[in-house]
Amino acid sequence: MRRSLLLVLALLTPSCSALFGFEFDDKLRSPDGGVDGTLPADASETTGEPEPAPRDGGTTNGADVEVDACAGCARPDAAVTPRDGGSTRLVFVTSKLANRPTSIADADARCATAAAAANLPGVFLAWISDSTTSPTRRFAHFFGDYVLVDGTTVASGWLGLTSGRLLHAIDKTETGGPPVNAVTSCNTPNAVWTGTDSRGDANAGYTCSDWTTSDPTAKVTFGNASETSSWWSSVCSQANQCGFRAALYCFEQ
């Protein structure tokens, strides 16, 4: 009887396969290629497809993915970090008119003397150029506000300072007084020695021959301490000016 039953099943098997379109196996196959109804241990090994990358801010294998939203952005230079953690730098026009500086170092020394006399802390450099350097090259490119000694904002950061338009004129001295009127043959009131354009670059050929001469043929650029346009740094560029007296702009670094 048992042998007869087995014989019947053997005869029926090919018919069932043809009828229902499947084959018998000694193990059931799962739809994803596994066996015994279980999923593969590693789906990527079975399918050959890589694990998808996470979207920004997502996770991979349960670990947070840190996304830099400012990749490639310019980073502040540590050299221009505020000295005291604050957000301002002082700027003033000197209260005393003087003959042309004899060098950039001489101009810086005049700024340092004026600041010390007014008890202003910090390092001050003159806004002045020659054929080898300029404020753009030697100043710290500060990110905070440049302010007068009374707290008035002159410019928001280096970009604002060199944009060609100040928020307020540099019209306060180190003691908080108004600029001293300096009359030159340019008919420029409140004249300031600069040799520099409003971007902070040297105005080539207009620096009294690198501050070495007062010869009438030498040329120089003056700024105007009452101006907020680009004229604050470059209002007059002429010959026969190096023998006059003018002020200096001094910037805290």
Structure characterization notes:
The chain is built from six helices and eleven strands. Helices cover 20% and strands 17% of the residues. A hairpin with a 2-residue loop joins strand 1 and strand 2. The strands form two sheets. Strands 3, 4, 5, 6, 7, 8, 9, 10 and 11 form a nine-stranded mixed sheet that branches. It has a two-stranded antiparallel ribbon with strand order 1-2.
Task: Tag the structure with descriptive keywords.
alpha+beta, globular, 6 helices, 253 residues, 9-stranded mixed beta sheet
What is the β-strand count?
11
- Range of strand content: 15-25%
Order of SSEs, N→C? HHEEEEHEHEEHEHEEE
Report low-confidence residues grouped into runs of 5 or more.
Answer: 1-85
The rough form would be described as globular
- The rounded distance between the terminal residues' Cα atoms is 108 Å
How would a textbook summarize the main sheet?
9 strands, mixed
Q: State the helix count.
A: 6
Average of the residue pLDDT scores: 76
The helicity comes to: 10-25%
Class from helix and strand fractions: alpha+beta
Rg to the nearest angstrom?
39 Å
Q: Brief overview, please?
A:
The protein has 253 residues and is an alpha+beta fold.
Topology, please?
Elements: H1 2-20, H2 43-47, E1 59-60, E2 63-64, E3 88-93, E4 98-99, H3 104-117, E5 124-126, H4 135-138, E6 145-147, E7 153-156, H5 157-161, E8 191-193, H6 208-211, E9 219-224, E10 236-239, E11 245-252
Parallel strand pairs: 3-6, 8-11
Antiparallel strand pairs: 1-2, 3-11, 4-11, 5-11, 6-7, 8-9, 9-10
